[in-house]
């Protein structure tokens, strides 16, 4: 009888003789989980957490929060008042995992970290990957940052200080410093033995970076290749030498575009000398893409960051300046209307119809502007193809203008006069063409000036479309003698 068979039989006997452990029935556990899911973050649950915090019962708070998913813990923080958030963080310090920190709203996280003592923030930071710890500390005041860094051990402090030395929203600040790199002279078997023998490897990695003697990346090897290749094969024979290297100074928008364009799962980050210093992984990039997309939408509306947790003073400051700018552009349109005040008095139909011209033109401009801003953000609209895109949008504007002009012209002719119908149709074509051109050229102009085209484009496009719509319609009406 083989040794394996004897071991299997012995194990069966041990299992047969072992007493059955008493515990909840599987169906009971399923019911409990379903009950927790149904009551998770409901008003009653949040109220019970708040009551336990008011009573200072940290044990009760911990017991209530411990079963929650990290994302639900982050949501719980946002549902509580500012003072309660600090108390909750102090009660569940060891539950503040990297997943919780990653899910926390930026303003909520910043408030909590500023309220906690330096040693508590340092304890939380030590539980995190370096990139998450940097995200935790970077928004603190300089004095608070130094206090937290002083509480960290030398290795963690050096890694975080190195990351903070890079500008915000660059690969150097965002990258993970936990990666696996091996020399190219190893065999596949050597790599497997190395991975199994190390206990300080990165928690998550998708590929192994192969480096030369200067620690410059020369290739990558996916884990699937390592697992399916015979041990005696040289690593240099199976690694992929073509790879996408990301300089530490790369902006996060460009970084996201690289991952999208080349379908990357992870990529090496190199410093100015070409040495491997970190890696970016797709889970971090997904967060960047979501963040950038939401930011552009809010900037187009002039709502600033648009975060409901943003302090009232900051929300006011970010929104009111664009409202003041809109007030200025509205005064320009009002001045144009005042120029034709006498004509409007003689023909009331002009006052009835002119908002239609401006409104349709504004919508056409907004459509084109949204397309242009997105194209610039995704690197589809560059200096190399600007005029081709302008010509394309001109043709689209001509088609749109002709279609809307026919509809509004016929309707106006039927209700008022054919001559007025011709005037508003002509004005509509002019305004939609101008709106289309403004929707492309204004964002391009801001991009050429190294300004974010999503920030101020809408104000200027609105001014152009409103002013041109009123001027074209009223000017043509006067020229045609309708208000003479």
Short description:
This protein has 484 residues and is mainly α.
Describe the structure.
It contains 24 helices and 6 strands. It has 484 residues and is mainly alpha-helical. The protein has 3 domains: 25-169, MgtE N-terminal domain-like (MgtE N-terminal fold, Alpha Horseshoe); 181-301, CBS-domain, CATH 3.10.580.10; 312-479, SLC41 divalent cation transporters, integral membrane domain (Tetracycline Repressor, domain 2, Orthogonal Bundle). The strands form 2 sheets. A 3-stranded mixed β-sheet has the order 1-2-3. Strands 4-5-6 form a 3-stranded mixed β-sheet. A hairpin with a 5-residue loop joins strand 5 (266-270) and strand 6 (276-281). Helix 18 packs parallel to helix 24 (453-479) and helix 21 (348-377) runs parallel beside helix 23 (418-448). The radius of gyration is 32 Å and the shape is globular. Mean pLDDT is 83; it is low at 1-39.
Keywords, please?
484 residues; mainly alpha; CBS-domain; Tetracycline Repressor, domain 2; 3 domains; three-stranded mixed sheet; 24 helices; 6 strands
């Amino acid at each position: 009888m083989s040794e394996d068979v004897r071991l299997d039989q012995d194990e069966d006997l041990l299992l047969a003789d072992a007493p059955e452990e008493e515990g909840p029935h599987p169906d009971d556990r399923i019911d409990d989980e379903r009950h927790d899911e149904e009551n998770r973050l409901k008003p009653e649950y949040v109220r019970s957490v708040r009551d336990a915090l008011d009573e200072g019962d940290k044990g009760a708070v911990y017991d209530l929060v411990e079963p929650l998913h990290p994302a639900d813990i982050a949501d719980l923080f946002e549902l509580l008042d500012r003072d309660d958030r600090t108390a909750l963080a102090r009660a569940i310090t060891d539950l503040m995992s990297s997943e919780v920190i990653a899910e926390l709203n930026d303003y909520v996280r910043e408030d909590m970290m500023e309220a906690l003592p330096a040693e508590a923030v340092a304890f939380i930071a030590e539980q995190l990957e370096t990139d998450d710890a940097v995200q935790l500390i970077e928004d603190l005041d300089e004095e608070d940052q130094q206090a937290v860094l002083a509480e960290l051990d030398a290795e963690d402090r050096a890694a975080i200080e190195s990351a903070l030395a890079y500008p915000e929203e660059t690969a150097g600040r965002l990258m993970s410093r936990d990666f696996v790199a091996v020399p190219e002279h190893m065999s596949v078997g050597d790599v497997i033995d190395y991975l199994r023998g190390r206990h300080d490897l990165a928690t998550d990695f998708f590929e192994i970076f192969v480096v030369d003697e200067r620690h410059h990346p020369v290739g990558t090897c996916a884990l699937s290749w390592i697992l399916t290749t015979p041990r005696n094969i040289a690593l240099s024979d199976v690694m992929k030498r073509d790879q996408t290297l990301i300089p530490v100074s790369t902006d996060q928008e460009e970084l996201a575009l690289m991952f999208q364009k080349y379908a990357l799962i992870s990529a090496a980050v190199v410093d100015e000398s070409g040495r491997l210093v970190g890696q970016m992984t797709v889970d971090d990039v997904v967060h960047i893409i979501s963040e950038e997309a939401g930011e552009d939408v809010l900037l187009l509306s002039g709502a600033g960051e648009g975060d409901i947790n943003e302090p009232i003073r900051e929300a006011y400051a970010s929104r009111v300046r664009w409202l003041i700018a809109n007030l200025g552009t509205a005064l320009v349109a009002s001045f144009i209307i005042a120029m034709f005040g006498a004509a409007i008095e003689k023909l009331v139909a002009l006052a009835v119809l002119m908002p239609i011209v401006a409104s349709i033109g504004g919508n056409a401009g907004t459509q084109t502007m949204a397309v242009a801003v997105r194209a610039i953000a995704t690197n589809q609209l560059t200096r190399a193809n600007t005029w081709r895109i302008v010509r394309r949008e001109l043709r689209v504007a001509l088609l749109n203008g002709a279609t809307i002009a026919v509809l509004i012209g016929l309707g106006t002719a039927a209700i008022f006069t054919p001559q007025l119908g011709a005037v508003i149709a002509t004005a509509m074509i002019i305004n939609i063409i101008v709106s289309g051109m403004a929707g492309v050229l204004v964002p391009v102009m801001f991009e050429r000036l190294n300004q974010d085209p999503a920030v101020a484009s809408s104000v200027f496009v609105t001014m152009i479309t409103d002013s041109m719509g009123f001027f074209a319609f009223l000017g043509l009406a006067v020229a045609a003698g309708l208000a003479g």
